[in-house]
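Chapter summary example.
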Amino acid sequence: MARPFARRFYSSKTWQDCRNAYSKSVHHLCENCLKLGIYRPGEIVHHKIEMDPVTIENPELALGFGNLELLCRECHAKMHDARTKNNRFIIGDDGRVVAR
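The structure predicted for these 100 residues follows.
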């Protein structure tokens, strides 16, 4: 589920169109798995630079193909697990930096 600051963005037609176009551009395959020679359908268009209250307002980061990658659910979960293990701070739902 999207964090409160991102709900409107992720439910917008602009994001849905972008997400669908990006998925089509990479032939609907998980990009991480494909690097390993595994052909697995991608399910989640992931932002390489995480969306927060500031970055979500930047169209280059929020909608630019250079900041997107298509991942299967397994790779997406691994990506987020790795991010949270390495971060001592996170952005809270209110947009403030808080310690873990």
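To summarize the output: The chain has a mean pLDDT of 88.
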